[in-house]
Amino acid sequence: MGLKLLVEQCTITTRHPFVIARGSTNGYRRAWVRLIDGDGLEGWGEADPSSFYGETLETVLATLERLAAHLPADPFDLEAAERRFAGVAPPPGTAAARAALSAALHDLIGKRLGQPLWRLWGLDPRAAPPSSFTIGLDNPETIRAKIREADAYPILKIKLGTDRDEAILGIVRDATAKPIRVDANAGWTVARAKQMIPLLREHGVEFLEQPLPPDDLDGLAEVHRVAAKHALPVIVDESCLVAADIPRLAGRADGINIKLAKCGSLREGLRMIATARAHGMLVMVGCMIETSLGITAAAHLTPLVDAADLDGAALTVDDPFVGASIEGGRIRLPTEPGLGVRRR
To answer: Sign (positive/negative) of CA torsion 318, 322, 326, 327?
Structure first.
């Protein structure tokens, strides 16, 4: 008997409207998938579509419907399954659905073997770096309130990319002495980025993420040269979707941010880590606004990376899953088999 695919739609809500340089929302439509084998074991995964990559809940559901007839007869056949999924539903616009199936397959084989995924990969969960907590764009009073809410987190990630970035940095630094990271979400020009770099260092920023539009690689190289003079690492997110993107970014950026919903699978995440390391680059693992189901899948990569931004579930008010614990920024991977996630 082959695998059976079940798909459930849901909406998750953030505590505050989540505002970045590209827009604002507090309701996120997601899909949960279950792969059920002949013994009744279930592998779970989450699809977290982003409109930036041309995905919506509707495109996810359509992609999953296309892929339902191409599930592997043997869930351990992960490489062949991934190639088949990408062949039937090639990028762009299909990564979130493929990532959900990848997570579900890994969850299922872990349950079959009775081991958590990190152990199957031979990793040490104690090596996971702390996670940052994201402070979205807002008015000064709400930014201060968000910083207070994030009191337990040791690192803050600040969203910029506006014409009031200097004021936002001042508000944050006035409210906390914690290490901060900055994500411009592709909201700056080269000139604006070069103008901001000295100020970022003055405020003790650890690194700058995605300062420019994704395709401006020549501009990125120019910003990187200036940032290097100020010892400010530059990390790319939207400029780097999969491992094949990394060689052209080497020398133009210091590191990459991996997200399952844009790379399409846990195995691609592992390839991205290996490729970045081969080019001497830093590696970060990030997230969308997700439940603990999606966050926990990504968290299994964290013993291999330098930085983590896995606060997506912590930003919500209606997370229905229990999985990786990220309390006070410390990532504790589950010891239960597979992903180690259960529904409340």
So the answer is: positive
Q: Where are the alpha helices (DSSP H) in 37-94?
A: 57-67, 78-88
pLDDT per residue as tens digits for the range 241-254: 999 999 999 999 99
pTM above 0.90, yes or no: yes
Q: How many CB atoms lie within 10 A of CB 137?
A: 23
Q: How many CA atoms lie within 13 A of 5 on its CB side?
A: 26
Shared domain for 157 and 298, answered yes or no, is yes
CA distances from 2 to 9, 70, 183 (A): 23, 10, 44
Residue 284: give the domain boundaries: 119-343
Asked which of 80, 114, 148 is the last residue of a domain, the reply is 114
Count CB atoms within 10 A of the CB of residue 4: 13
CA 128/CA 55 separation, integer angstroms: 30
Q: What is the pLDDT of residues 209-255, one digit of tens each?
A: 999 999 999 999 999 999 999 999 999 999 999 999 999 999 999 99
DSSP conformation class of 130: P
In single-letter form, the type of residue at position 180 comes to: I
C-alpha 148: how far from chain center: 24
Domain co-membership, 169 together with 102: no
Residues 46, 190, single domain; the answer is no
